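Sharing a chain and its predicted structure for anyone who wants a worked example. Both blocks are below, sequence first, tokens second.
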Amino acid sequence: MHAGKISLIVVCSIIAIAAFAFVYANRKSKEQTKTNQDPQYLIEARKNIVGVWYEEDNPKNWVEYTIGGTELIHKDGYDSKFRYKIVNTTPLCDEEVEVDINKETMYLQSTYEDDKFELCREIIFIDKKQLNLAPVGMYKNRVKVYIKK
């Protein structure tokens, strides 16, 4: 009877060690996925976008990007508030977009507060003081130029 208890303890210990190893391995793979860094150009873009940008053609219209991911658009006297992120993924706003690390493609994905409206634009930094935004989709040739003040 004593040998049966020892066998049960050994089997339970093996199961516990196997379960622990499985959980640890899964956790490690998730951590590795999380730590896979975005390309450097995306990291730089997320830093460089923060601030107030004025439309080159109409300086009364401006947009402000915060570190916390808020985008405030002031256009023609009206304000709209979005949550934004800079990504290089496809599809975006139900459109297939080019994703090419060598060309440093990146997109500004903005979601209106109620999550019912999404605005996606290709983003191109000319330098730290000029930003070009081109809508994704059929109006992609309507590039807006912004100047940082």
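Comments welcome. Residues 1-36 form one domain.
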